[in-house]
Design goal:
CATH superfamily: Protein tyrosine phosphatase superfamily
Helix content: 40-55%
Number of domains: 1
Radius of gyration: 16 Å
Number of helices: 7
Distance between the termini: 18 Å
CATH architecture: Alpha-Beta Complex
Largest sheet: 5 strands, mixed
Structural class: alpha/beta
Strand order of the largest sheet: 3-4-7-5-6
Order of helices and strands: HEEEEHEHEHEHHH
Shape: globular
Strand content: 5-15%
Length: about 200
């Protein structure tokens, strides 16, 4: 598991370096198209998106494109975390909320805090991010199924665009759904762990 974590960190650093090393912001009918530069960026609706770690240069662009808040689900001590991301978000007119989720020990309490934030700001355009979008996509999978009534098969297809949860996260998903009286099973759901390209 330690080796997998090191590869995970190395992959993040490579992604961040490739973006920082000169990827120009593209123009699309006069609007900046920068979300392609953010690792594993995914829109679920007009108000909910998730991603891996953006760069500091992306924070003002997120604000300019209408994001009202950022929810960060990783640890601020991560080597790819933006220094003073909270200050940068506030400076650009967005709220910044942090739920520190240990990748090896996600908890029902983490999810409940996250859900309370989203429930209290349902009209806010929100980016939920972590380092690679594993935590964020999983928390949004759960939130969409539990609170928004999205069919589990549809939510699982979106989760599959980002990753196939490992045993720790599979247990977290099944236990969290069970706590709300829901099952993780559906005809189209394959929960077998898969390699992420």
């Amino acid at each position: 598991m330690r080796f997998a974590n090191e590869i995970f960190k190395f992959t993040i650093v490579l992604q961040m370096l490739s973006v920082a090393s000169g990827t120009a912001l593209a123009a699309d009918e006069g609007a900046l198209v920068f979300t392609e530069e953010i690792p594993n960026y995914l829109d679920y609706s007009d108000t909910l998106s998730s991603s891996g770690q953006p760069l500091a240069i992306h924070i003002p662009l997120l604000a300019r494109t209408g994001f009202d808040q950022i929810i960060y689900l990783a640890l601020t001590t991560n080597i790819t975390a933006i220094q003073k991301e909270d200050e940068l978000a506030l400076k650009n007119g967005m709220d910044f909320l942090h739920v520190a989720v240990d990748f090896e020990r996600p908890s029902l309490r983490n999810f409940e805090l996250f859900a309370a934030i989203l429930n209290s700001s349902a009209d806010q355009k929100t980016l939920v991010h972590c380092q690679v979008n594993f935590r964020a996509s999983t928390f949004l999978f759960l939130y969409r199924v539990i609170y928004l009534g999205v069919p589990i098969g549809e939510a699982k297809r979106d989760l599959d665009k980002v990753w196939g949860p490992d045993q720790v996260w599979y247990r977290f998903i099944t236990n969290t759904l069970a706590a709300y009286g829901l099952s993780h099973e559906c005809d189209a759901c394959d929960w077998q762990e898969r390699e992420f390209d």
